[in-house]
Write a structure and sequence with these properties.
By secondary structure, this protein is mainly alpha-helical. Helix content is 71%, strand content 0%.
Length: 78
């Protein structure tokens, strides 16, 4: 990575390749989503409703088999 390349990325003149984003992610201790889109998992979680938060908490406590069943049920609603 050259200073010129970083300058172009920072100023929106070019976009880093996926491998450079991964390297930057490790160097900066930042998520690749944050580097690509300016958002990270914490931003997404902050926008959840109370019901969404409850659902996610409950879902994470299920077994993998139970999770598969729930996903199948949700897919059938579409």
């Amino acid at each position: 990575m050259t200073p010129q390349a970083v300058y172009k990325w920072a100023n929106g003149l070019s976009v880093p390749s996926p491998d450079k984003i991964s390297t930057l992610s490790n160097l900066l201790n930042a998520s690749t989503d944050w580097l690509r889109y300016g958002i990270d998992e914490n931003d997404r979680m902050a926008n959840l409703s109370e019901l969404d938060d409850i659902f996610i908490s409950m879902f994470l406590n299920l077994t993998n088999e139970q999770k598969k069943i729930i996903v199948d049920v949700i897919r059938n609603f579409k």
